[in-house]
Amino acid sequence: MDTGISDAVYQDQILPHVSRTFALTIPQLPAELRISVTNAYLLCRIADTIEDEPALSPPETQAYMQRFVSVLAGRGDAESLARELETRLSDRTLPSERDLVRNLQRVMNVTSALSEAQRAAIHRCVELMCYGMPRFQSTASRNGLPRLTDLDDYATTWRGSWATCSPSCFANTRRSLPAAGPRCKACPCRSRKGCK
């Protein structure tokens, strides 16, 4: 990505390269929401990149997740974490995900410009993911998770993280979002089981 652009523009430019579905919906949000929701998504994407990295053992994954949460809390250096983590990423990590990890400091710069409530919500969201993901990684095998209920719990880790983050990211907006349509209200996924 172009280093001569602002950190917020970097977020907008990297989003479609690291997301399939969120990249279609987030740009439709009002500007004041788009920045915080994009930021939250990208930080979650970095956590997911750490989790997905096959070159890291489960204990290493957990250690990187803990360091990432510390960086978000202001107790660590984003640039040094990004440099170290980038050297550990294998060829299985997509170039766009590698670029996002490399630019962790830029994403963190945007986070620091958000409201206190938004930063707290994003921190909690990422913290939940970084706690939950390694727990499932340690029980998974080439055959997948041991029980179907584990899939539900894994999906709830992602969804629960977003459910914690979203209301606080939206709280500082003056515009209201359109009401959910009939199809959305009737969605069986409202049971919070098995969908991401």
Structure description:
It is a single chain. The protein contains ten helices and no strands. By secondary structure, the chain is mostly helical. The protein has a single domain, classed as Orthogonal Bundle (Farnesyl Diphosphate Synthase), CATH 1.10.600. Helix 3 packs antiparallel against helix 7 and helix 4 runs antiparallel to helix 8. The radius of gyration is 17 Å and the shape is globular. The two termini are 28 Å apart. The C terminus is likely disordered.
Measured between the Cα atoms of the first and last residue, the distance is 28 Å
| Overall number of domains | 1
Q: What number is the mean pLDDT?
A: 79
Strand content: under 5%
Query: What is the C-alpha radius of gyration, as a whole number of Å?
Result: 17 Å
Number of strands: 0
SSE topology:
Elements: H1 7-18, H2 22-25, H3 31-52, H4 58-72, H5 78-88, H6 95-102, H7 104-113, H8 116-137, H9 148-170, H10 182-185
Helix pairs in contact: 1-3, 1-7, 3-7, 3-8, 3-9, 4-8, 8-9
Please outline what is shown here:
The chain is an all-alpha fold. It is 67% helix and 0% strand. It has one domain (7-191): Orthogonal Bundle (Farnesyl Diphosphate Synthase), CATH 1.10.600.
Structure keywords:
mainly alpha, Farnesyl Diphosphate Synthase, 10 helices, globular
